[in-house]
Amino acid sequence: AFPPGGGVDIVARAVSERLSARLRQSFVVDNRPGAGTTIGTELAVKSAPDGYTLLVGPVGAALIAQIYYRKSYDMRRDLAAISKIGYGTIVLVVPPGLGVASVKELIALAKAKPGQLTFASSGTGSNIHLTGEMFKQRAGVDIVHVPYKGSALMLPDLIEGRVSMALDSMPAHLPHIKSGRLRALAVASLQRSAQLPDVPTISEAGVPGFQSNTDYALYAPAGTPKEIVARLNRETVAVLAEPDLKARLAALGIEVSGSTPAALHAEVLAEFDKWAKVLKEGNIKQE
User: Fold this and answer.
1) Residues β-bridged to residue 217
2) Residues paired with 173 in a beta bridge
3) Nearest-CA neighbor of 37 among 217, 181, 284, 200?
4) Is 285 exposed, middle or buried (0-12, 13-18, 19+ CB in 10 A)?
5) pLDDT (tens digit, 0 to 9) for every residue of the chain, 287 residues total?
6) Could you tell me which of 172, 173, 164 has the C-alpha nearest to residue 143?
7) How far apart are CA 133 and CA 136, in angstroms?
């Protein structure tokens, strides 16, 4: 449910490549971005429950989008959980031309120019969007949201300085951080990232207790036979245990972690309740 080049796409391609070898089946990664993941998710929900159409996507972000866009499908009911895949780091990046070198400097600039700075996200109603909104609330700043259909699509505007900042999944931004085309000010996790050990957490950098992350999971349409779900779970967990795959994704800030279908389903239920409360209490409604 995302365009090519972002964290979900990278994970989908890496995992499907390994599953293809184990299952002796060809996999095609079909990118269907838009409407905060709901276009791709709805396509998966409506697909035949035969094990041949799978969905790779986030837990929290997809549930946020489902609630935000008031979709008729319900991930708790209409998708069969297969396995958690892992977690990703969210990084706060700015173009060097913005002229700030720390979170405190960014906040000071935003306070000096209320409503003039912008933050990019991978889609309205997404986890990345709400992470940006949470930053605005915790930092007490007025920054304008600019939604895109995925991380790769925001990069040109971010690098050229047409948008001021992004709090986004690390994989798409890491090469540009290392090349100096983007500046990483902080990470949104509670611990520093091994890929950017000199970059502080947002909590360390002046917004205490701030925390958010991306995540990745594998689903099938509801009604997929239990034996197929069980086999896909078994093979996915095996793939995620392969040391070279773990190292490959770790280099992009993605920590892989398989699970049982039951554990992923329980997480879906808990995340639905959490984000439904956040949206309601924050009075965040569809624009």
Assistant:
1) 57, 84
2) none
3) 217
4) exposed
5) 988 988 899 999 999 999 999 999 999 999 998 887 899 999 999 999 999 999 999 898 889 889 888 999 999 999 999 999 998 899 999 999 999 999 999 999 999 999 999 999 987 777 888 899 889 989 999 999 999 988 888 999 999 999 999 999 898 899 999 999 999 999 999 899 989 999 999 999 999 989 888 889 999 999 999 999 999 999 999 999 999 999 999 888 888 989 999 999 999 998 898 788 877 876 777 76
6) 164
7) 5
b/e string for 228-261 if b means 16 or more Cβ within 10 A? bbeebbebbbebbeeeebbeebeebbbbbebbeb
Beta-strand ranges (E) seen in 95-248 are 118-121, 144-147, 165-169, 183-187, 213-221
The end-to-end CA distance of the chain, in Å, is 20
Q: How far apart are CA 287 and CA 264, in angstroms?
A: 30
Can you tell me whether residue 81 is helix, strand or coil?
strand
For residues 100 and 183, what is the distance between their CA atoms, to the nearest angstrom?
9
Cβ–Cβ contacts within 10 Å for residue 82, how many?
31
Task: Measure the CA angle with vertex 112, ends 106 and 116; round to 5°.
Answer: 80
How much is the CA Rg of the chain, to the nearest whole Å? 19
pTM (two decimals) = 0.78
In the numeric block, the tokens 């009911």 are attached to 77
- Residues 72 and 244: beta-carbon distance below 8 Å: no
Contact 56, 88 (CB under 8 A): no
Q: Are 53 and 68 within 8 A, CB to CB? A: no
Three-class secondary structure of residue 271 per DSSP: helix
